[in-house]
Write a structure and sequence with these properties.
The protein is built from 4 helices and 19 strands. By secondary structure, the protein is of the alpha+beta class. Strand 14 and strand 15 form a beta hairpin.
């Protein structure tokens, strides 16, 4: 009887664990369902020598310079010097509609490219406005650069930035989960203009080269234009995840369980 009871308890525990895993898997990977394509967390275990791991996809980056590892918004982040430090991806990433996410703590008063594909990107200008821009495929030079910029907080804290390109419709900038500005962009991103360039973090090749100064954490790229509701969800997720259980770690565990 005692043996049968022990077996029943073990079976019950196994059943509960299985249900918990299934529920966690269903509820634990919302960004994947939103079209997540690449994720660079900059956690200590994802930065090895000159390599930065893409913990979701397969697009790891190569470091130029020696950005410092610092305490980030969640776990570790990288601090770039604004002069040499940058990350260049090994593979191209291009989507006609795209969403770019980052958590940043920049040095204000300088132009700071956050994520740059040469024909689109998110950046902070030297007037402390943060925004999104694209190089549009149009013969009208006056319409080459649709963009949307808003003032960046001067409190010296980490802030969540999301830029959205909706193909042939608009570019939108979000700050801490809220839509701040939307600009019409009826022409698509110029594929030819950026064809020879791999994506970079903390650097743009425009104007002879410009480097980012300050901290960057949790850079993510999504295929498609996320909605206002989805961007608010991203911000909620960014605030909700504890440093010891980051989304990337949780997703990695869940992916091995499915």
């Amino acid at each position: 009887m005692k043996t049968q009871l022990s077996i029943s308890v073990l079976l019950l525990v196994g059943f509960v664990i299985s249900i918990t895993v299934i529920q966690s898997a269903e509820a634990g990977d919302p960004r994947e369902k939103m079209g997540l394509a690449a994720l660079w967390t900059f956690d200590k275990d994802t930065v090895q020598a000159k390599k930065v791991e893409d913990v979701f996809g397969k697009n790891s980056g190569t470091i130029t310079g020696k950005p410092d590892q610092i305490d980030g918004f969640r776990s570790e982040a990288l601090d770039f010097d604004g002069a040499v430090d940058l990350i260049r991806m090994g593979e191209d990433i291009f989507f006609p509609s795209v969403t770019m996410e980052a958590i940043i703590k920049p040095t204000l008063g300088t132009r700071n490219p956050i994520y740059d594909k040469y024909n689109y990107g998110i950046q902070l200008l030297d007037n402390n406005n943060v925004g999104i821009w694209i190089r549009a495929d149009t013969a009208n030079a006056a319409k080459h650069w649709p963009s949307a910029y808003v003032p960046f907080p001067t409190d010296g804290e980490w802030h969540h930035v999301v830029g959205v390109v909706e193909n042939k419709k608009s570019v939108r900038i979000y700050l801490d989960g809220e839509l701040k500005k939307s600009t019409p962009a009826p022409d698509p991103i110029s594929i030819a203009y950026g064809a020879a360039h791999k994506p970079t973090i903390a650097y743009t090749q425009h104007l002879g080269g410009i480097w980012y100064a300050g901290g960057i954490d949790e850079v993510a790229i999504f295929e498609g234009a996320l909605s206002d509701t989805e961007v608010r969800r991203l911000h909620t997720l960014a605030l909700a995840v504890e440093p010891t259980e980051k989304l990337a770690v949780t997703w990695g565990m869940l992916k091995t369980q499915n």
